[in-house]
């Protein structure tokens, strides 16, 4: 059986969301963050980087959210949560998957830590964030999710960063992206993931 190593308030909710969606049995092992908001040392016994999410599936230990999502959908989900392989939509979907932790993450994380620490967010990060929000809003025009009317892996992937931005109050000026985030978190499998993993973000 798959074991998911879940650090509280972490990206592991993405993995649990997909597993709930495809109905694959799994064990959830949860860890508390330290007072410094770091992963505890016990996670290094699972993976050398000591981060979450990490899954164990037989002899395989796998980290990195996008890699885990692709693996689980390929092996257990019948590739139902990504477009047909080798299609233009598949290329676009892969672009979104990489966009989240590549292009998007830096400015979102800056806003998150700004809120958590009370420090002002650098103007460069504010500008970058606004550009990304405009890009998202434009891409979502006329559709419920990134690839159409059904949430796919890229939507699951982006949900956590939108939760960070929402925690920081940074979605207030971006109503269409905020509405998209609300649609994501209303997906039944997402709600079940939150029930299993706990709150996505720390208390305000």
UniProtKB/TrEMBL annotation:
Residue ranges of domain GST N-terminal in the record: 1-80
Keywords: Transferase
Stretches assigned to the GST C-terminal domain: 86-203
Presence of keyword Transferase: yes
CDD domains, alphabetized: GST_N_GTT1_like (cd03046)
Coiled coil: none
GO terms, molecular function: transferase activity
Listed Pfam families: GST_C, GST_N
Family assignment from sequence similarity: Belongs to the GST superfamily.
Listed PANTHER family: GLUTATHIONE S-TRANSFERASE 1, GLUTATHIONE S-TRANSFERASE-RELATED
Name of the protein in its database record: Glutathione S-transferase
Species of the source: Fulvimarina endophytica
């Amino acid at each position: 059986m798959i074991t998911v190593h879940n650090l509280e308030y972490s990206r592991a909710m993405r993995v649990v969301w997909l597993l709930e969606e495809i109905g694959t049995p799994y064990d959830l092992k949860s860890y508390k963050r330290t007072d410094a908001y770091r992963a505890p040392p016990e996670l290094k016994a699972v993976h050398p980087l000591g981060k979450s999410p990490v899954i164990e599936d037989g002899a395989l230990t796998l980290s990195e959210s996008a890699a885990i999502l692709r693996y689980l959908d390929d092996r257990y989900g019948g590739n139902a949560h990504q477009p047909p392989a080798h299609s233009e939509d598949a290329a676009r979907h892969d672009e979104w998957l990489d966009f989240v932790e590549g292009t998007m993450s830096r400015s979102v994380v800056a806003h998150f830590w700004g809120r958590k620490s009370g420090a002002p967010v650098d103007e460069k990060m504010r500008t970058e964030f606004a550009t990304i929000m405009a890009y998202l809003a434009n891409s979502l025009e006329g559709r419920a999710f990134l690839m159409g009317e059904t949430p796919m892996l890229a939507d699951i992937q982006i949900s956590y960063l939108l939760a960070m931005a929402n925690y920081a109050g940074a979605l207030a000026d971006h109503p269409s992206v905020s509405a998209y985030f609300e649609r994501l978190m209303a997906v039944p499998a997402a709600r079940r993931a939150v029930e299993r993993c706990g709150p996505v973000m720390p208390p305000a």
